[in-house]
Write a sequence for this structure.
């Protein structure tokens, strides 16, 4: 299964901010939209990711407050990216290795979406459920061996 197949089902709603967006505004957007990440774009290019992890680190560094800084200061400025052709097992491996819960999907420098760990887990679960259903149906319909 490829990332493109998951994106078709997931849809393409994407929330972005610029590096100069105040952190408090970014955090408010994440809370209002109930999302765990924002893609940071500058001049039409992906320049970073702001996730729950960076928000929590910011709050910790500011003694329990978001503080006056901008997204630029706190974002992950080297996020891993994947393409629509990336296989889901490769996405799982990358996410586990890099401890990434959100990965931008990019095709020729065009941002297509964000794949979350939840999206991957859901896709794998649904694929395995379908496969199990087909196997059970196949076993149930197994032809009887002719007696010799």
């Amino acid at each position: 299964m490829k990332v493109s197949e998951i994106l078709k089902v997931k849809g393409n709603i994407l929330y972005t901010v610029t590096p100069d967006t105040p952190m408090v505004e970014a955090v408010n957007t994440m809370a209002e939209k109930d999302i765990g990440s924002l893609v940071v774009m500058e001049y039409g290019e992906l320049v970073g990711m702001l996730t729950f992890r960076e928000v929590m680190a910011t709050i910790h560094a500011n003694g329990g407050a978001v503080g006056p800084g901008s997204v630029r200061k706190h974002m992950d400025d080297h996020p891993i990216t994947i393409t629509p052709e990336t296989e889901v097992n490769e996405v799982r491996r990358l996410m586990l290795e890099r401890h990434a819960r959100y990965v931008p999907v990019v095709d020729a420098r065009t941002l297509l979406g964000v794949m979350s760990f939840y999206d991957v887990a859901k896709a794998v679960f649904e694929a395995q459920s379908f496969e199990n259903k087909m196997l059970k149906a196949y076993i149930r319909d197994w032809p009887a061996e002719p007696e010799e």
